[in-house]
């Protein structure tokens, strides 16, 4: 029974991989392509974490630990993005 | 009390056996390690006047193939753990063996069909920013795959002796190895579109 569940998750991951490749070949503009690809990757990642890594039924202490990590990761990315707002004119690109 | 406590029974305060908390702490540090490199990628990409589409420099079919291989290895890895839960060592050996073979296949494709042809055509990390971050991210990921192969091979071979004396503890060890292996798969799930497709 458990094996069947894991097999379905595995097949879903393969299907989503095919979808990622297909979407990347559509002419939808780079910004939209990045958004769609990251959304699919996040969904795939949450399938792996929830089912293969049993995060869905994991203890509260692990959820707190991972939420703290997520917070720090968001701070890291936020600092970078805010940093880009504070760049001198003409210095925003690497030659 | 055992020499090392809480290898099977959960601690009263965390509700987990120690290795399970330990691996999640380790994986959290890994999130920040790869997170810092993903952040580096964002800085480099936003700061570049021109950024190549991954498909113009990398092989999408090979990247897709390796994604399928890693997903398949995650499925066989979770089957290896389920086999032990069912008390079937033979099935464990088969599924864990498949996991190791799939990981080696991933490494072979990466090395012989991706890295070496690039080096032969003088495409090194020093050539441009894209290749620099490509080799850094995929190289670090490949090292993680290699680490997983070493650990899994040990548990497939000599490490499996523990099954005959402490089956529950051995099952827990495979669960921990599995958590690491699925994380390696998870990182690749993000690396593949970012580097090959966008």
Brief account:
The complex is a heterodimer of chains A (95) and B (198). Chain A is mostly helical and 95 residues long. Chain A contains three helices and no strands.
How does this model look, in words?
The complex is a heterodimer of chains A (95) and B (198). Chain A has 95 residues and is mostly helical. Chain A has helices at 2-25, 30-52, 60-84. The N and C termini of chain A lie far apart (56 Å). The model of chain A has no long low-confidence stretch (mean pLDDT 88). The model of chain B has no long low-confidence stretch (mean pLDDT 94). Helix content of chain B is 78%, strand content 0%. Chain B is mostly helical and 198 residues long. At the A-B interface, helix 1, helix 2 and helix 3 of A face helix 1, helix 3 and helix 7 of B.
What's the helix count of chain A? 3
Low-confidence stretches of chain B: none
- Roughly how much helix do the residues of chain A carry, as a percent range? over 70%
The helix content of chain B is over 70%
Q: Report how far the terminal alpha carbons of chain B are from each other.
A: 54 Å
Secondary structure: number of strands of chain B:
0
Mean pLDDT across all residues of chain A, rounded? 88
How do the helices and strands follow one another from N- to C-terminus of chain B? HHHHHHH
Structural class of chain A, by secondary structure, is mainly alpha
End-to-end distance of chain A, in Å? 56 Å
The percentage of residues in β strands of chain B lies in: under 5%
Query: Which spans of chain A of ≥5 residues are poorly predicted at pLDDT below 50?
Result: none
* Shape by Cα distribution of chain B: elongated
- Major sheet details of chain A: none
Q: What is the string of helix and strand elements of chain A?
A: HHH
